[in-house]
Amino acid sequence: MTRKARIAHLAGPNATIQNTPPLVTSNKARAKHQLPALTNPDGSPARFDVLRAQRLAAPATVYVEQFSARPLEADAAELYGPPDGYIDNAGCVHKQRQSADDKPVYEVELRPEDGLYPLPYMALQADGSAWEEECAFPDAPEPKARQGFFPDGSRSFEEIDRLQIGEHGTGNLISGKAEIDFYRILPPSGYTKGLSADRRTDAGSGDIPAERRGVDFFPYKPRGDDLLAQSLDRHDRADLRQCRPTAARHDQQ
Question: In whole angstroms, what separates CA 222 from the centre of its chain?
C-alpha cells in the first residue's frame, strides 16, 4: 500500500487560482422574490441556473429519475436492478407502478454531513435586490463589496474532492492520495470580523482577530517568500497558490 503524501498548501498573496466567480442570485430566487430574471446576452431566457457548491442545513429526501445520469442508460435497462419506487403525475410516490405514465425513481436522503452539493444560489442583498456581482453596485467601496478569494486552500480542495470525477468514475481525487495542511502565508483574503478557533480550516491555532486588507491579507501583493520555510517541515511538498512557480520540497528518504 502506497503511503499518502503529506502536503503543505500555502495560500500566498498573488493567489489568482484561489479567486472564484461572483456569487450571482439565481433565477429561482429571483422568481421567488419577484425580481427581474437573468437572461442571455440577446435578451432570451437563460436555459439553466448556475449551481454553486453549498452546504445543506438539514436532511432532505429527493427522488431521482431512473436512467437520467446518461442519455443511453435506458438502452441497457435490462442490466439494471429495480427502482426504489414510482412517482405518478400528482407527485405521489408508490412502491409499484400505478400507470404507464409513472416515472421510476431512486430515493436519496441528502444529509449535511455528506459535504457540498451544487445548488441554486438563493441569497439577496440586504436591501432585497439581487446580487449581480461581488459588489453591491458597480465600483462600490470596500464596505459594500464581498471577497471572492478563498482565505486558504481548504475550500478549493474540498470542492475538487467532492465534485470532480476521476477517469474511473470515482472522486476524492486529492484526499485519496494526500493529507493536506493549509497555511495562510500572507493570504489573498481575510476575516475582517475575525474567526473563532473552532471554525478555522487552516493549520493555525487560536482565534483569528479581525483582519485588515493590505495588513493581514493581500489580494495581489506583497510577496511572502520569506515565510515559506516556516511551513515546510514535516511535509513532502509545499504547494504555494499564487501567480508564481510552485515551491516544492520532497522527502529524500
Answer: 27
